[in-house]
Amino acid sequence: MNFFKTMYCRLFQGVFKIALPILPYREPKILENNQSVADVLKQNLINKVLLVTDKGISKLNLPAALTEILQKNNIEVLIYDNTVANPTTDNVEEALQMYRQNECSAIIAFGGGSAMDCAKAVGARIARPKKSCGQMKGILKVLKKIPLLIAVPTTAGTGSETTLAAVITDSKTRHKYAINDFPLIPRYALLDANLTLGLPSHITATTGMDALTHAVEAYIGRSTTKQTRKCALDATKLIFENLLTVYKDGSNLKSRQNMLQAAYLAGVAFTKSYVGYVHAVAHSLGGKYNVAHGLANAIILPYVLKMYGKKIYKKLHQLGVYAGLFDASTPKEIGAKIFIEKVEELNANMGIGKNIPEIKQEDIPALARTAEKEANPLYPVPVLYTAKQLEKIYIEVKNG
Ligand SMILES: [Zn+2]
Q1: Distance in Å, CA 7 to ligand 1 centroid
Q2: Ligand 1 centroid distance, CA of 294 (Å)
Q3: d(CA 178, ligand 1 centre) in Å
């Protein structure tokens, strides 16, 4: 990358880093059981709540235990379960209408990333009734408190219970965009491992690797704080200690709980410290070939870590020592290489391959341009690359 572009990117990231302590970031308070959700709602004098979820989850009856407890506490629960995989503006409007018609006064986002996105956008629409979702696209367009939002993740990976983004697809144009603002960060997150017990093993594996990618990319980036480094370290350790266990034995409640904790911590880390080229490349492949986000991250992560080279030896060494992968006396370079090998080993042990064969050679230049545009200047990556340089990653990920 040329001198001026490099200067521009680093200056842009520097401004964000300086602003970090004064921006109104917050973390959702963790709730550990259904009764504590009821207690929070009662403390806030709420007796009607809208639960936003999807058909898959409602068919599995996952919200039943929570809704039962809420009803016992005289809290009425309205369920909107039409959320689709890439939630649309129609989803948001339907859920909004349900919220209004029933005079609800709080929202529970129950599910994976999609339910969270939809629920956050409903909150934004309530805070800003005159603005459509499209008009709130971008950053800092909500700027007003949304109704009490409680997130209940049913996978351990996305970390969207901690983030300020809602990704919505326009029902008419199919344009996909994000609404990003601080009021969208949920006030509470219920981390209940019972809800993740039924996850199929490959979803457990790929969502868990997504969380690992959040932690690693946040940690090796240049915009960390003491708090985000600690969260990323703890998340990485928890994932190396628990992910393979839950992959092999989905019913291990303790390890499931640890994975939820890890995904939450990794979410807190990347909300403030961002992700990097792994995510930028994964998003481009998701958009073009529909490759699942976690799977793409899992496969791409080792290639990008290798490409960064000696710039990240020290950080990978720190992550590896903290996670107990090797001794602190191991030389930096060797430690970094062991760390990458351990990521590859974890993938292999969970049946995740080494390449993404869907990638077509002729698509690579455009994909690399998309990834470059997403990452630069926003992501404080350890080494800056041009679109041309990023093409190398696609070629490696294509061929394995
Ligand atoms: Zn991710």
Answers
A1: 27
A2: 7
A3: 14
Query: How far is residue 354's CA from residue 296's CA, in Å, rounded to a whole number?
Result: 10
Q: What is the pTM of this model?
A: 0.96
pLDDT, tens digit, 9 for 90 and up, residues 277-334: 999 999 999 989 989 999 999 999 999 999 999 999 999 999 999 999 999 999 999 9
Ligand 1 centre distance from Cα of residue 200 (Å): 19
Task: Kindly list the structural domains of the chain, giving each domain's residue range(s) and its CATH number in brackets, ordered by start.
Answer: 3-21+199-399 (1.20.1090.10), 33-190 (3.40.50.1970)
**Look-up of token digits 């490409």:** 307
Under 8 Å between Cβ of 172 and 209: no
